[in-house]
Amino acid sequence: MDFDIKTIPTGLRLILRGRLTFTENDCFRLMLSAVTAAHAQGGLVMLDLSGIVFIDSAGLGLLLHARDVLRGRDGAVVLAGATGQVERMLALARFGDLFDSAA
């Protein structure tokens, strides 16, 4: 997995690419540390999943961890751009009940 962090008018957009599995745990946590350092005041964080080609249960857990960390800093977290297998996994895990979504 690799990522870019972009500033948007309402907060930050994290553009994720590759696979989101247990193997990417360290990279994901590094990204989350960079986000919390850059975005200490809270606000919106959009997790753009359009570049994620595969996610497993550990990857779902990483998304939940990010949600919990960012909400703990008075932030809002939205998911955007999921397609294919990623979209199916999010639906199966009922992430629509746990996250807001963006177009």
UniProtKB/TrEMBL annotation:
The protein's GO terms of the molecular function aspect are:
anti-sigma factor antagonist activity
Q: Name one Pfam family in it.
A: STAS_2
Q: Which residues form the STAS domain?
A: 1-103
**Stored InterPro entries:** MlaB-like_STAS, STAS_dom, STAS_dom_sf
Top-level division of the source organism's lineage: Bacteria
The entry's protein name is: STAS domain protein
Source organism per entry reads Magnetospirillum molischianum DSM 120
